[in-house]
Amino acid sequence: QVQMVQSGAEVKKTGSSVKVSCKASGGTFSSYPFSWVRQAPGQGLEWMGRVIPTVGIGKSAQKFQGRVTISADKSTTTAYMELSSLRSDDTAVYYCAREGTGRGSWGYNWFDSWGQGTLVTVSS
Amino acid sequence: QSVLTQPPSVSGAPGQRVTISCTGSSSNIGSGYDVHWYQHLPGTAPKLLIYGIINRPSGVPDRFSGSKSGTSVSLAITGLQAEDEADYYCQSYDISLSGYVFGTGTKVTVL
User: Fold this and answer.
1) Which residues of B touch A117 (CB under 8 A)?
2) Staple A58 to which of A47, A51, B10, B41, CB 3.0 to 4.6 Å?
3) How far apart are CA B79 and CA B19, in angstroms?
């Protein structure tokens, strides 16, 4: 059973960047893609992007293109999400999630294990 | 904004059956992409309830079940219990957005 432990809460200034880590243990890190999902206060879940550990550099959701960098380091079995040009509406809990693989295309995948979440607070 | 629509809230008495719908379009559910369901309690990580429309991971009670009709899928909870009070989200893939999408979320209240 894989376990994912995320880095601690962050308080950032508007316009700065934040990098959140997610260390996986208990499973085969390189065998599964990892995604990042966030939840702003009072809002629903929002997918941000994903990474395949064997590739290293990920793909972001259209909304975050140019602002988010998702990566993975096989040597430390850790996935990362870096969000730049922070705004107040980026205040949210950020989750990493391992993807369960379905029919071969990633369009059929689900999220079977989740990190505990990291609160990122952005203020001026 | 979410491209998968769910009712904002549903409620039921203990022991009753409730259903949550998740309606998409031809660019996601209508294109045959699978739908998965999550239970989310405040302050905790979301938990996978149903994957591939109808499948339950080990450890998930059989009170939870999924189904599909056209571009709409549903999650049913039978024998409602107090511990089922949570937010529930559906999730799929959208061709137009080239990425995963979540539903708007449904709050289940046990009366």
Assistant:
1) 45
2) A51
3) 12
